[in-house]
Design a protein that fits this description.
GO biological process, one term: secondary metabolic process
Organism: Neobacillus bataviensis LMG 21833
Radius of gyration: 20 Å
Helix content: 25-40%
Strand order of the largest sheet: 1-2-3-4-5-6-7-8
Largest sheet: 8 strands, parallel
GO cellular component, one term: cytoplasm
Protein name: Amidohydrolase 2
Order of helices and strands: EHHEHEHEHEHHHEHHEHEHH
GO molecular function: carboxy-lyase activity; hydrolase activity
Number of domains: 1
């Protein structure tokens, strides 16, 4: 049995924060895919090998039957925390009541944005099956979690390989109270391409930001490589995740997405943020010399980034001198870009009482609350 890691302090030793808090990355998990059975027709239950079809003899043979797209890389310990296991002994993050006590009550959380943590089929080759799985996952998340506590808000999943189906899914549930954003998984099509523009159009109309979160990067047939090819180990893959965001942001800017959809916001969650300084400086420098290629841009790339891009704080970078992180934020005027993320219940979550100690109160208020309030639809 794998050993889970314990990275958190006890509830008793954790002080409560002094400002309102919106946690922009909380992961709900299923105990098993069987939780989706009530939301799927029998034909799709059978394809997914769940519900009453779980013990289908043919599905348990290596005969080309369905296999859920799992990640290529395994954490040598475990990606989930031992202190987040609910009293039932189920998967960490699978019990709404325990999560609210263990996380929300501990930090006086105002809202928690739920980003599905059990894996998606965003890069899966069978788009029809992926669409049904996505629809069922959205309904499961809404019924089990959002309805259980007013502090739960959710990002809805869409189907990146089929924008038309994505639009239909947004039209189906995108205006429901409690849905705060759209979770668009990364596939091997850059986000600036017109392929995605129907999704952006309705997202802007509905006032929903696009959330980008690691998941599909290392699963299934339409996953993108991390710039030069697949990593060999979990540590290599995990450490180079920011490359994905660094590739997507120039695509969004130079393809003119933020000129076409000026009110649309993109939040890159769980990629860190210190790399954004290099990217802003490099894009501005190149734009000065090559702007004839992109005459539709009206302002420097860094200004689009400040206006339309948001970044989750986790996993926060740790420079040799802690003050340097604050200086970096101030240098690039990123105070309005950062969103607090706990990444609960993952192993590399950040303790907000420790990592923000040197930040001034005004900046903490923006990171903990105001920036999220301005980004998500509440």
């Amino acid at each position: 049995m794998e050993t889970l890691v314990n990275v958190n302090e006890s509830i008793e030793s954790t002080k409560k924060i002094t400002v309102n808090l919106i946690d922009c990355d909380v992961h709900p998990f299923m105990s098993s895919l069987d939780e989706l059975a009530p939301y799927l027709d029998e034909a799709y239950q059978k394809q997914l090998n769940i519900g009453k079809f779980k013990n289908d003899r043919l599905k348990n043979q290596n005969n080309g039957g369905f296999t859920f797209p799992l990640g290529r890389y395994g954490n040598p310990g475990h990606v989930l925390r031992t202190d987040a296991i609910p009293p039932s002994g189920e998967t960490p993050g699978s019990d709404p009541q325990f999560l609210t006590k263990d996380l929300f009550d501990r930090y006086d959380t105002t809202y928690g944005i739920l980003n599905i943590g059990h894996g998606t089929m965003g890069a899966y080759h069978n788009v029809n099956l992926a669409a049904e799985y996505t629809r069922a996952s959205n309904d499961w998340l809404y019924d089990k979690w959002v309805k259980s506590d007013h502090r739960f808000k959710m990002t809805m999943e869409v189907i990146p390989l089929d924008p038309q189906l994505s639009v239909k899914e947004i039209e189906r549930i995108g205006r429901k109270p409690g849905i705060a954003g759209i979770n668009l998984r990364v596939v091997n099509i850059p986000f600036g391409k017109r392929h995605f523009w129907p999704i952006y159009e309705i997202a802007e109309e509905y006032g929903l930001p696009i959330i980008v979160h690691p998941d599909a990067e290392n699963t299934a047939e339409y996953s993108p490589n991390q710039a030069i090819g697949p990593a060999s180990t979990y540590i290599e893959w995990h450490s180079t995740l920011p490359i994905i965001a660094m590739r997507q942001i120039p695509s969004l800017i130079f393809e003119g997405v933020f000129e076409k959809f000026p009110k649309l916001k993109f939040a890159f969650i769980e990629y860190g943020f210190a790399w954004i300084a290099h990217l802003m400086w490099r894009l501005d420098k190149n734009w000065k010399g090559l702007r004839q290629e992109v005459p539709w841009l009206k302002i420097p790339p860094s200004e689009y980034i400040r206006r339309n891009i948001r970044l989750g704080t986790q996993p926060i970078e740790e420079p040799f001198k802690p003050n340097h992180l604050l200086e970096l934020i101030q240098m690039i005027k990123a105070e309005e870009m950062l969103l607090f993320c706990s990444d609960y219940p993952h192993w590399d979550g950040d303790n907000l009482q420790r990592v923000f100690l040197r930040f001034p109160e005004e900046l903490k208020r923006k990171i903990f609350y105001e920036n999220a309030l301005d980004t998500f639809r509440f």
